[in-house]
# Entry
Amino acid sequence: MADAPRKVTQIISPQYVIEGAGVLLRRSFGPSRANLFDPFLLFDHFAFNDPIEGPIVGFPTHPHRGIETVTYMLEGNTRHRDSLGNSGVIGPGSAQWMTSGRGILHEEMPKRGPEGTVFGFQLWVNLPVALKMSAPRYQDIHADDIPELEKDGQKVRLVAGEYAGLIGSATEIAIQPLYMDVTLDPNVEFSLPIAPGNAVYAYLFEGEAILGLDTDGRGEMVKAVSMVVFGDGDYIRIQAGTSSPARFILMAGTPINEAIVPYGPFVMNTEQEIEQAFIDLRNGTFVQD
Ligand code: FE2
# Structure
């Protein structure tokens, strides 16, 4: 049987939401019991370009349990500090893959770059039951350590997964994710096999592109800024629009297929486990060395 192209099944316009101590974000989706984006839970885009937005207040100390957060910065920095004694700065072009496991308390404070801008993304990835209460872990990925490939009008930065013989920097993640930053020159086409059964999303944040092209070359014309959901199949095809480059974050992963109960910064499998998270916070047993 011939390979089947993955078609676009949904185009989401991100909604503005306020999080942390008053940070304006564009949210494509957030955690819900319906778990429609399994294995992913949330995708936020923070972009502050306008001085009228005032000082950036960030995300003061808050807990996480049962998830992984992936922060990828393009402009500006995010300074982070946590209950395990880790601290650092995620600078332009850098990423951090944080596995909260059973619990961390951390703060995340975006800072403007020299041009006065902050531009980055945060993805939440679910953890399977067996890893919900695992030990917390950080993978800090410096910009210079992200494999990059530039050819034929395509530029790819590979944060996680495999592409063209390259292996992304984040490793040993349960859902075997693909997380890549792709820039295409005008009219340039990009195609990639993605095994059937995996969930695939493209967050188009610059330009416009035709996504989900089929064997006849037909697909959906989408303008930035949009989250594009692909249906099942064997591969994806994306072609940049005619007038300007297109840039998108491409994410894929194996669905976990387990019921979830999300509550704020916790994503567990039962209500009792959510209650336990609050009990642990109250008792001071949330974070264990
Ligand atoms: Fe956080």
